[in-house]
Design a protein that fits this description.
By secondary structure, the chain is α+β, with helices and mostly antiparallel strands. The protein has 13 helices and 38 strands. It has an 8-stranded mixed sheet with strand order 31-32-34-33-35-36-37-38, sandwiched between helices. A 4-stranded antiparallel sheet has the order 2-3-4-5, with no helix packed on it. Strands 6-7-8-9 form a 4-stranded antiparallel sheet, with no helix packed on it. The chain is globular and about 70 Å long. The N terminus is likely disordered.
Length: 700
């Protein structure tokens, strides 16, 4: 045999070494790219997509993307545009304070939007007003269309593209400005507001003209498709607490010939004229007799006035938004069906609703463009918090993906498995909710359980990515299972299920929550000795109740929760939804004070053994701070471990990034200490002012 050359053996050795090196490098690369657990900062840095708009020709989409800016300590929203096929994604605006409400011109060549910007370098921050800006579709510099004396809050193009209608509150008078400057500014409570009225502005000249006036407010409006008439909702004031006194009206586009179409004590919304201008659809949380406190339904009334018809009387779901089809023969609407949102089509004459979508998702946004006869949907899914998809008007096809803002999340992070779970309430009624499994879940092993109850309570928890307020991804990474129960009083399960709270708030609702815990203990998932309770707003009400009802929970967090329904009724900015719960007001003759007090967690505060923290915004008018103070002081007086944390400047829903991070950190610290007996290391706010945003063009 002929001996092989030495060089050949050397080559083989080098090749072997190279192969080993490359294999190791590849392994490291795969390891580096393998999904990891989310942190609190990761979650806070996930952008928020909202207000999707499809151009009239259906070829382009515009949307708002809010990104975390840690230097500014808040999310800043900018407007983005993409082609409907997913290509050509581009950021259209980049103002320091952000922009919102993008609206396409009828020819699709221009975007109108709202922004609060300084017109001059020396302009004071307090003097800035939100104005309408115009931006060409191909980009460039936006120009200010309005210089209105008060901030603008809503806008809509007239069909001819020559005019934009907008809503703005009445400006302060010179005398009011003078008094404010002198600090001579004592005001009457519940009267410190300005009425909101409708205006129109000429696109070519910027000349603005008032459309409505008087001692009332325009709360919503929508032009007819021919631009000749306007459907609107008018109330005596712009105050949220008086929304039940607002009614649906129609008028000419000039503001003349106004006709009132409804007269009831139920808040309406979403008023729209039919394509032929003869009918007006609207939504209301009422039945056919306009009795309050039902799942929201679709109503239709002649535009000239007359009998109001309800089209979804037997639908067990909660209608969220609605629109006329292009030909006016159908009504499209999105509905809360319990743990999902779906899109439906309904004959305008009445009949059975047909589902156009299916799947485990909810909607973060929906728009129907009649000119293109297409829907634009922001699908919130367990691994994606809201990328955009299009769908033909009548359905019949799979949704087509437009954006890929969030596509990287499923690749980059380990995300918890979500599953619908079902159990029976104490009275045998079927109840369901969502279960999030720990990332390291192994069948047969029990895990600490965090029970999160949704707010509202007229709402439900649905499939979706979630966010900073529930941070299920982080809880799952830390070994917790999470249960989100849709207890009695939730929407999407029929009126009887929703109205279980009428006359008795805590009749079955809290029992449904506890029955859900029992179910997870029974099937071997939840550890009965490591239970945690948390919730915000209505979820805070529920937390306050549960800790007075049972001592099974080892730790609890109550966010902006009510403790005393008597004082809450007078303190809050809204009372409409609470009157039915207790059968009247607490100050009427023969007031049902005993019912109010019986359902107040404060009455049973002496029963609490669960270490509980309370969190509330200093400027919360929905569930004011005194509610948390009352409950916290009761627990502290009784020797129960407790803390009350107050966030300066914050309203009912916290908005500052560092406050949101604090909420998550302090809750995890409390849960780990009291439910698991171990310490927790707080996450710190990042030093950089803004994370890198990952946008993938659909063409690639």
């Amino acid at each position: 045999m002929m001996q092989r050359p030495v060089v050949s053996r050397l080559a083989r050795l080098m090749c072997a070494f190279a192969c080993v090196f490359l294999s190791a490098s590849a392994a490291r690369s795969v390891a580096a790219q393998s999904p990891r657990a989310m942190t609190l900062i990761d979650l806070l840095n996930v952008p928020q997509l909202s207000d999707p708009q499809l151009s009239p020709d259906g070829r382009s989409v515009a949307y708002v993307l809010a990104e975390a800016d840690w230097k500014a300590n808040r999310r800043i929203s900018h407007i983005w545009r993409a082609s409907a096929d997913g290509t050509g994604t581009v950021q259209m605006t980049n103002g320091k304070d952000g922009e919102r409400l993008p609206r396409w011109s009828p020819d699709g060549q221009t975007l109108a939007f709202l922004a609060r910007r300084a017109a001059r370098p020396d302009e004071k921050e307090d003097d800035l007003k939100t104005q309408i800006y115009l931006l060409r579709n191909e980009g460039g510099e936006a120009r200010a269309l309005t210089t209105h004396a008060a901030s603008i809050s809503d806008l809509e193009w007239a069909p001819d593209g020559r005019t934009i209608y907008f809503v703005a509150e009445d400006p302060r008078s010179d005398a009011e400005k003078k008094r404010q400057a002198a600090r001579d500014d004592v005001y009457a409570f519940d009267e410190n507001f300005k009425q909101r009225h409708l205006w129109k502005v000429q696109v070519d000249t910027g000349r603005a003209e008032r459309v409505t006036s008087g001692d009332s407010s325009i709360l919503e409006f929508a032009l007819s498709r021919d631009g000749k008439r306007i459907a609107f909702r008018r109330g005596p004031t712009p105050l949220f607490g008086e929304s039940d006194q607002a009614e649906v009206w129609v008028m000419d586009a000039s503001g003349e010939n106004a006709t009132q179409l409804t007269a009831n004590s139920v808040p309406e919304a979403n008023a729209l004229l039919s394509p032929d201008g003869t009918q007006v659809l609207f939504l209301a949380q009422a039945n056919e007799r306009f009795e309050t406190y039902h799942n929201r339904k679709v109503f239709v009334v002649p535009a000239s006035g007359g009998t109001v018809r309800v089209l979804t009387a037997t639908l067990p779901y909660e209608v969220e938004r609605a629109a006329w089809s292009a030909d006016g023969k159908s009504i499209y609407f999105t509905a809360n069906t319990g743990v999902e949102d779906q899109l439906f089509r309904l004959p305008a004459s009445g009949g059975k609703a047909e589902a156009l979508t299916r799947g485990q998702h909810s909607f973060n946004g929906w728009a129907y463009e009649p000119s293109a006869d297409r829907h634009l949907l922001a699908l919130d899914q367990p691994d994606n918090p809201g990328d955009l998809w299009t769908l033909p008007g009548a359905g019949g096809a799979s949704p087509a993906r437009v954006t890929r803002v969030f596509e990287h999340l499923a690749r980059e992070f380990q995300l918890p498995r979500q599953e619908r779970v079902e159990w029976k309430g104490a009275d045998g009624v079927r109840v369901e909710g969502l279960l999030f499994y720990p990332l390291d879940y192994r069948q047969g092993e029990r895990y600490p359980l965090v029970v999160q109850t949704h707010g509202g309570p007229q709402a439900s928890d649905k499939y979706g990515f979630g966010g900073w307020s529930d941070y299920v991804q982080v809880l799952a990474a830390m070994g917790y299972a999470v249960l989100q129960p849709n207890y009695r009083g939730s929407t999407g399960y029929g009126d009887a299920f929703l109205r279980d709270m009428v006359g008795s708030y805590f009749k079955n609702s809290h029992l449904d929550v506890i029955a859900g815990v029992d179910h997870l203990v029974k099937i071997g998932i939840a550890d009965p000795d490591r239970l945690v309770k948390m919730g915000w707003s209505g979820g805070g009400h529920m937390t306050n109740k549960v800790i007075t009802f049972t001592d099974r929970f080892k730790a609890a967090s109550s966010g902006a929760g009510a403790s005393n329904w008597v004082s809450m009724y007078g303190q809050s900015d809204v009372r409409t939804y609470r009157t039915p719960w207790f059968g009247g007001t607490p100050w009427q003759a023969n007031a049902p004070i005993d019912v109010y007090w019986e359902h107040s967690p404060l009455k049973y505060a002496a029963n609490v053994k669960t270490p509980t923290i309370f969190l509330v915004g200093e400027r919360d008018v929905r569930v004011p701070m005194p509610q948390s103070v009352e409950m916290h002081r009761a627990l502290k007086s009784n020797g129960v471990p407790t803390k009350l944390w107050v966030a300066p400047r914050e309203p009912h829903g916290w908005q500052e990034l560092r406050h949101e991070l604090f909420k998550m950190n302090v809750e995890l610290d409390w849960f780990e200490k009291h439910a698991r007996g171990r310490s927790y290391t707080w996450e710190q706010a990042p030093e950089s002012d803004r994370p890198e945003l990952k946008i993938t063009d659909g063409a690639h």
